[in-house]
Amino acid sequence: MANGQQAGQILLVFDFDHTLIEDNVDVTVRDLSPGDMPQYVQSLEKGDKWTEYMGAVFQHLHKQGVSATDIKQHVENLALAPGMRELFDHIGLVAGQYDTIIISDANSVFISYVLEHNNLSGLVSHIFTNPAEYNSDGCLVIERYHTQDWCPLSTVNMCKGHILQEHIKQRLKEGVSYSHVIYIGDGSNDLCPGLTLKAEDYLLARKGFSLWKKLEKMRRKPSEARQKVTATVIGWDSAVEIRTLLENIAADKVSK
Prior knowledge:
This protein is an alpha/beta fold. 39% of the residues lie in helices and 20% in strands. Helix 5 packs parallel to helix 10. The longest helix is centred in the C-terminal third of the chain and has 17 residues, at 239-255. It is globular, with a radius of gyration of 19 Å.
């Protein structure tokens, strides 16, 4: 590579909800409420104000006596997605081959709980998500990752495609380029980053979820698709299938 750049690493990009973990953490944490959410909280759920909605949910839980410990224990009990443990075991064995990051519309506190509880923190180099912390009263407070108006495919608080490409640019400045980018997700907001991928990259969509359905519709009716996915699209049910893909890519590199 020119200018002393290092090539050959694979960038692994994970969504969080319904991808790294089996559930949607924001949806499940609402179950900690001893009763129904107040109407003023429910009114924020509609539209493009999910971050503000979750902030109101956390305030309500705090008022109802739900503690930081209660939230932590709840999140830690959430299961990883099928095969995800086996996939990360593989990543750990050959960690130098991968740069593993998370881009998620969850929040920094919840993601750190899951990674630390499952001993995965050391395998993830960067987490791009909505920042959150407990205030002096013990209430969880969340902020938008950013506020964007350039991407109609994304929510106002997070354009995953922009985040992904900025990370790749930053790594290039640091002398690292990737042989492949492998994006692993499930939701509608994972389409935008998928559209930024190149021919040598992979878009791994969890079968049966929103991203997979959108991609299937684009495949069936290409004339209606405003943009085209250049990367190789693969559906997955278990992350064991993703591990197999990584092993095949590694074997292909060795044979060349």
